[in-house]
Amino acid sequence: MNQIPTAVASALTLTDITKTYPGVKALDGVTVDVAAGRVHAVLGENGAGKSTLVGIAAGSVVPDAGAIGLAGRTYERIQPREAREAGLAIVYQTPALAPSLSVVDAMMLLLPESKRPTRRAAHGWLTRLFSSLSLSIDPAAAVSSLSLREAHLVEIAAALASEPSVLVLDEPTEALGPEETAWLFERVTALVAEGVAVIYITHRIPEVIEIADDLSVLRDGKVVGRGRVADFTADQIVKLIIGRSLETTFPAKAPAPAVDAVPALEVVELSGPGYDRVSFAVHPGQIIGLAGVEGNGQRAVLRGIAGSGATGGKVFVGGEQVSIASLRSAAAAGIAFLPGDRIGEAMFGKMSIRENTVAPSLKIAMPFGFVHRRREYALTRQGIEGLAVKAPHLEVPVSALSGGSQQKVLLARGRLGDPRVLLVEDPTQGVDAGARVEIYAFLRAMADAGVAVVVLSTDAVELEGLCDRVVVFSRGRVQASLTGDEVDERAITGAAVLSSETANVAVAKTGRRRSGRGLLAGEGQAAVLLGLAVALSIVASFVSSAFLSPLSISQLLAAAAVLILVGLAQLVVVITGGIDLSIGSVVALSAVIVSFFGQQGIGLFAVGAVLALAAGALVGLVNGLLVTRLGLPPVIATLVSSIAVLGIAQVLRPYPGGSAGGELLTTLGLAIAGVPVVLAIAVGVAIAMWFVIQRTGPGRGLRAAGSDAVKANRMGVRVPRTRLWAAIAAGTLAALAGLVVYSRSGIGDANAAQALTLTSVTAVVIAGASIFGGSGSALAVAAAGILLQTVTSALSFLGVGLSWQFWIQGAFVLFAAIVPMVIAIVRNDRAKLTSLRSG
């Protein structure tokens, strides 16, 4: 531990910070001074204000009052990008990595601009960085394909690479194993030796004593203690955190079982991907712990018992063999499994405490298939009894709860239905000291009631205090079984590390995921769509050779330009997670505006074109402000504006009119080598959009904003501003499509373009863009536009009614929606299988 020098410079000062949320004062005049070259632990229960405090320092949370002193400057509030450029790097408890980005793109957003390599050199630079940190993660992998552990390691790597003067670590070891924790501590020690200030937030008191020099303790939004860590015992620190003494953290253990006692749970020769011939037993009243270096099979075994992945062996509950062929059959046998990833895997974040608690017990909650609110409330209160869930009422969304209260709701769910076996993965991950005591007492009470409790934890101290027996895994097999006095931290860690040949398994063996890195990598969808258009054209030409005549093809390509532009307009909004229902109306308004200038020659037409584009941008601006400033859902905002814009267009042109002169139509219909100029413009716009979205910083921000707005904000993306510019771009592109419409028809018609809104959505869906935001290819949208117009043009030559156009479009949408889902399911299954085998 570092000795406190006689004079230590402040690296970060938070003065009189106050932050209030509706009904809750998260911080109340908090002052914390973090010295350079020292590790400062910020401690407190969940909800004490720790994460809010560091979020304010990092710029992701706006304070109500107070000052932030960083890099010699004082701020009333600071933006994430400003904090990063000023030398502050933060690793959040939940990794701030937008799922739709690649690892390399996420890293580029997280780094200060002065530390970013060029786009061309980024992949090689990141490969070398990961190698120097003993990480084997493919820079081209999608963030969504990473495990929670890998995502934490990527964010830690980004923080280290930024060469910070202040490093904030918010619960950094919750998803890490012992080896990774040691790996992190080595790097923290090296940074401190170089004069870096480290803010360390954790619930693990032994880590505080091991790594920290100073501490500040928060309770109910106020600082209730501060000083040097060396001046406090572990018990004193815990007392400061929870405001009361802990006579005992762990409940008393069960007495040794009788020799002839029938096990409550017996696992015999269980095998599966990543583990082989695993056997152990849990007797009534016992809690058994599963331990080992992360990735040695213990996690896969727990899930195998729960009905996921086991390929051989037997499981007995109460002396009777039960089926674990599936999650459903295991649950029917009385086996309840509570995953460690609460929100991601176990719970419905936007649903209430009540709905989450009774979710697996619907037959009990609603025996006749109808909601019985009184019964649900009774069951929920029964489930959470004694768990002290901190919430004003049972209708609070579970995502709004602290980590400890979320875990208690999950435990309450496990209690309902009278399970015979309770499998708990990482029961206190992200849970404060006070809540841990309640959770330990709950698990012991379940065991005392005859339930076989099996706990998987990476915390050896927790396993020592809670478990009657600990089964240690190595390379997918039981390496040691510790009982009685053998169950202590040193023995558990020793059996896990010294017996394993897979040292550093979690750091050195994170799976490599290859993906193409060529200029047009990932554009297979565009090639497929163009291939379908060509194939359909060939079929149509067999029916009628006139289909491939120069005039027919020229008209097809010119019409396709409109579909390409409206598709691109929709895409830029969809990528941000929204939708624009005003596109057809903007196209009509644009064509109407320019129709007043079309009879006056090309010069005045240019003036009209500028006015039309400005009108489109103005509509986009209004849409963006309605969404970002007033908080209206994009569907409502753009529907309202669509009606208003259409009304304006109809006022301007109650009837079609404003015929263009012949010279103007000839100019606008120019073709080069048989390719209409309007198509060349549309394709050029698509190429430019593709480059911006895939190859620039603003494009990364666009995808991040649509992928996960909260994480994007933490990565430094100004989400509201990004969405506003996307809306403006969409309006401008729709107006450009209106100019093309006028160039083809030669008149302004307020009612001629309404179907283009639906077509724009169709093009985006067929192009494979995620309707939830975060991804999409402009080149694929361009190909989709060409395909849709080919379908429309081919129908008349094939002798098929025009109504079939909508059936065929619907079929394309259905196909485009189902195929990616099937591919994703197959990939996820393969990834899980690979992970289990490597485990």
Automatic annotation (TrEMBL):
It comes from the Bacteria. Keywords: ATP-binding, Cell membrane, Membrane, Nucleotide-binding, Repeat, Transmembrane, Transmembrane helix, Transport. The keyword Membrane applies. The keyword Membrane applies. It is found in: Cell membrane. GO terms for molecular function: ATP binding. InterPro entries: AAA+_ATPase, ABC_carbohydrate_import_ATPase, ABC_transp_permease, ABC_transporter-like_ATP-bd, P-loop_NTPase. The chain crosses the membrane at residues 526-547, 553-574, 604-627, 634-652, 664-693, 724-743, 755-772, 779-800, 806-826. Its main location: membrane. It is a multi-pass membrane protein. Residues 12-245, 259-500 form the ABC transporter domain. This is ATP-binding cassette domain-containing protein. It comes from Microbacterium insulae.
